[in-house]
Request: fold
Amino acid sequence: MRAPRSIRGLATSGLTRDSQVNQNLLESHSFIQYKKQFENVQIVKDRLNRPLTYAEKLLYGHLDDPHGQEIERGVSYLKLRPDRVACQDATAQMAILQFMSAGLPQVATPSTVHCDHLIQAQVGGAKDLARAIDLNKEVFDFLASACAKYNLGFWKPGSGIIHQIVLENYAFPGALLIGTDSHTPNAGGLGQLAIGVGGADAVDVMASLAWELKAPKIIGVKLTGKMSGWTSPKDIILKLAGITTVKGGTGAIVEYFGSGVETFSCTGMGTICNMGAEIGATTSVFPFNNSMVEYLNATGRSNIAEFANLYKKDYLSADEGAEYDQVIEIDLNTLEPHVNGPFTPDLATPISKMKETAIANNWPLEVKVGLIGSCTNSSYEDMTRAASIIKDAATHGLKAKSIYTVSPGSEQVRATIARDGQLQTFEEFGGVVMANACGPCIGQWDRQDIKKGDKNTIVSSFNRNFTSRNDGNPATHAFVASPEITTAFAISGDLGFNPLTDTLTDPNGKEFMLKEPVGVGLPPNGYDAGENTYQAPPADRSTVTVQIAPNSDRLQSLTPFKPWNGKDAERLPILIKAVGKTTTDHISMAGPWLKYRGHLENISNNYMIGATNAENGEINNVKNHFTGVYKGIPETAGDYRDAGKTWVVIGDENFGEGSSREHAALEPRFLGGFAIITKSFARIHETNLKKQGLLPLNFVDTADYDKIQPEDEVDLLGLTTLAPGKNVVLRVHPADGSATWETELSHTYNIEQIEWFKYGSALNKMAAVAAEKKAA
Reply:
């Protein structure tokens, strides 16, 4: 959905490379900086003396100091100046609370807040939205008033999902955006670098500090050929996830190139970049191309498309001969639809192998629910292709066998499919159209058709399918597919159904095959903006008061964490040795807990309650090291803290995979944690831990993870001389009385980040610097 576009009537001809062009149609104060960014790129190219990839150009174009910045892929920490910040309502609460504590009058970088996470799917769009507005009024009022006070744009509940709103209104080729949501990379479909971060990173950029990112490696994905039939852009990323696994993209940007890039829609590219978060990639991006021009034109931004064309050859495309750290090739001519899951988004199965694989693994074949939409697959093209399949089935007298839900990505998409008839097609099929919000994708789903513990199968066009994520039921086998394949499963009700080869039976017993889906990338009659749900900040903000109820259980002002005591840590208990996949959903669950995202004390009651204890194989049941009493993890952590004992967590591979939620780092800090020691970390979670003053450390020898027992105590030595590249020593005191042993732990701290640890958090450091400047 879009607010009225006052700049729509501006002429789009006669632009030069020196023209001043607005970043969007909603703000008069933000402009595209192609000339400056191109000059930065030229400085870096002269220094490196080599061709650059497209992603590198966008990174280096946003450098704070292109002359002096050290640049080595996978090694250097880049200081960058993003064009803007975007926050969704669940993470925005803590980000804004942190920004308020910095004492600044307004944001220094264009920023927006989007209300999409706090709307629970129950019965349907209008009723669910009204209920959410009532239940979350306190939070929405806080966000609206804070945005008005600090000069942020505010997208009210019902506007749509943050990533779709960004694509429709704010994304443009060549930009650098950070967003407090892991699927921020969605905007890479419009040729920009869009990177998911924690709220503390967002606060840095809002406060005009340079943003720090470890220079990513670049994975090139070469696309050749052209998709047809049942294959869709979603299948590109589903296949890629199967190739790379959930951590194969860690520390890297995925850059797509090749002739196949020119063969599908901009929104399809957004789908691919969105789900790139599932392989751990820093972000994903497509080079500027004609599909992006068409999408910009369709969304009223022809002047941006024209301006970008002026920089296409030298800034908005990779240099000839640019080298990638890894190249993966996907032939779109032979690409088959894929179904990924259950329980992890990288378990990729071609549709031709799905039935035999499901039977071999004893996956439930009956598809209970099919869900389409979400931030990943809710474009007009997705909706039209799904609707075409439904219309074909209807001509044979068939409706949905499975429960079928539709989550429109934005008010603009909802209004347009309502006008053009697809929404009616979904409803006649038996589908329920949900609110323009995240809904079941993030666990905001009041599912009633099964009981918790019932083994069942659901298929969605979402991005994640971790255990319990969608409906809170660990026995739900969640699979991820394209909207087209999800719709075919909903018609057949059978996970083993292959629409490319299998037949269905109509009410008269006649067999038939579904026709291949057809759709269009952009609405032929243009987009219908729908209801206006955008709130611009007022011109005079001096009288605005931020609304926080003093006795709220939803919002709580932050108290600064204590600084490090300057000593090595000794005889620390292990709160939990977590075994297996430990995502941010395991560390800080979403669903009903989302309502406490602005109240650190209350939300800390969910810390690690989904993690599996290596000692007993149980969830949320650990032994207190000093009393021997078993309790839940948050209670035990709180008991340690209240007794003056800091603690550590021992974790497995890719610890903190998933969402960008910084609560997974704020909570252990609030509960008295000191260090998280793992085999490896997911990128965003590791940064979040650093920002909050915790120590994220990795076993140099991952076999040491197996040697440590949950009842042991540990020392962390060498903290007084902590330095970049210098390992920390872990001394283990075995609980069985055997001899102590030592091993080394690595870290990724640079000099500035070590200051965050010493001061107790990055925010503490920021406040100290501000105080020094004020005193001077």
Q: What stands out?
A: Residues 167 and 627 are 54 Å apart (CA to CA).
